[in-house]
Amino acid sequence: MSPLIQWYPGHIAKAEKALKEQLKRVDVILEVRDARIPLSTHHPRIAQWAPDKPCVLVLNRQDMIPAHLREAWRDWFKEQGQAAYFTDAKGGKGVKALAKIAAKAGGAINERRKNRGMRPRSVRTVVIGYPNVGKSALINRLVGRRVVESARKAGVTRQLRWVRIDDNLDLLDAPGILPARLDDQTAAVKLALCDDIGTASYDNQRVAANLVEQLKTLQKVTGGSVVPEHLLRDRYSVDEWDGTGEDYLITMGDTKYQGDVERAARKLLQDFRKGVLGPVPLEIPPTLTAPKSEPETAPEPEIQPEQTPDPAPAEAPN
């Protein structure tokens, strides 16, 4: 039996405790998820922590999924009663509109203050999400300069910090938070594949083999509209559509790395995470099972064959 994927380091436990205290002072929540796995990166306890706070759903890394899939997700979330806003924090797309959306969502605060004869104040917004979904990069884009540490790995942000965007908006940058226990191991593997969880929590070969299996399944379910047929074969000259994911890694290791399966696994994971394989998601809307007769797909990327070779809680702004 494969070992369970679990990751809940001490800094996350401390950050969660501090975050729940700060939520009392917050007006609006920006929940940032990974657009490749928007269901698996939803924290199940956000609504419980702040049931009376407006929540804006942000799906970051829009550049890493096909354009037509974004529209499918928008439609699906709309059916669930929630608007979804797509961003690419690294490239800056869709970011500026978020400040206006957050300020608008918190507008009721200043309306109440006005009715009481009080002066308006900036809207206090917290950015919440799993590790490495792009929260800090999003804040840096909103501010227009690097004000918080940002890197594509889990666990960079370890303390809460308030950042002023302008006179109308303050943002609280929070460390990535995860449930204390990952009961859904299918989702846990997706977190590992997308590098949204600590590397010490999983085995590279196990998750890389799972990636092959998921790509095969998505290609079959969507008829190639989301995951192009023979995606991995065209990249690595190893056919992925016969055998298991583990078989594929073994063959890839034998063909390209002198039998080094671990090296093959690391290469496959690295290429997926960096977008070398193109805009490839790991989740599709539950209602999307097969493409229409003429799907509006985004142009497929050209894939070149590879050459063988412990802080205290932050205080809210006054």
Summarize the structure.
The chain is an alpha/beta fold.
Number of helices: 11
Parts with pLDDT < 50 across at least 5 consecutive residues:
153-158, 290-305, 308-313
Number of strands: 6
3D shape: elongated
CATH topology-level fold name of the largest domain: Rossmann fold
Strand proportion, as a percent range, falls in 5-15%
Helix-strand makeup class: alpha/beta
Order of helices and strands: HEHEHEHHEHEEHHHHH
**Annotated CATH homologous superfamily of the largest domain:** P-loop containing nucleotide triphosphate hydrolases
User: Separation of termini?
Assistant: 53 Å
Q: Please tell me the CATH architecture of the largest domain by its name.
A: 3-Layer(aba) Sandwich
Report on the architecture of this protein.
This protein has a 6-stranded mixed β-sheet. It is α/β, with parallel strands linked by helices and 318 residues long. The chain folds into 2 domains: 10-173, P-loop containing nucleotide triphosphate hydrolases (Rossmann fold, 3-Layer(aba) Sandwich), CATH 3.40.50; 203-273, no CATH class. Strand 2 (55-60), helix 3 and strand 3 form a beta-alpha-beta unit. The protein contains 11 helices and 6 strands. The longest helix has 19 residues, at 204-222. Helices cover 37% and strands 11% of the residues.
